[in-house]
């Protein structure tokens, strides 16, 4: 989870996670949780921003813990606009021509990566002389296997990131209560 430093007009500095915003206007002073809706934790009569931040962190922790760690499996069904019968994340066969060489055919597989741009992997099927239905099926099977492994890795990484976010929030909450 990303944290940033927020300095209040009084000079107090706090490490605040994403999902919590400071509100300071003429009549309102407090921390607003912005995750699955909004909720304001006012500094109140005590005018103690540390105490209201602790309450906001506790609320954010509860909301984050109740969220599913992994989003539903991405693209479990092909797009309605897809014209081929290939599974989601696989395109082709793509025919490429290079000067002085025979035409080649390959499949393109989109491999998702958490927090990074997806990787596009090309799987060689054959040239215009070696292309066969069996080679196409073998390349398609390899593409499906690569895509499944990438989706499984994506889900594992998402679970790991979710638990790290919860640990970071708990750590920040305990340090706020101590200090």
Your description of this structure?
The chain is an alpha+beta fold and 179 residues long. It has 2 domains: 3-67, no CATH class; 73-179, no CATH class. 36% of the residues lie in helices and 31% in strands. The chain contains 2 helices and 8 strands, in the order E-E-E-E-E-H-E-E-E-H. The strands form 3 sheets. A 3-stranded antiparallel sheet has the order 3-4-5, with helices on one face. A 3-stranded antiparallel sheet has the order 6-7-8, covered by helices on one side. Strand 4 and strand 5 (38-42) form a beta hairpin. The longest helix is centred in the last third of the chain and has 46 residues, at 133-178. It is rod-shaped. The two termini are 21 Å apart. The model has no long low-confidence stretch (mean pLDDT 88).
Distance between the termini: 21 Å
Quaternary organization: single chain
Broad shape: rod-shaped
Calculate Rg over CA atoms: 25 Å
Tally of separate helices: 2
Averaging pLDDT over every residue, what do you get? Answer: 88
Helical content class: 25-40%
Number of strands: 8
The assigned structural class equals alpha+beta
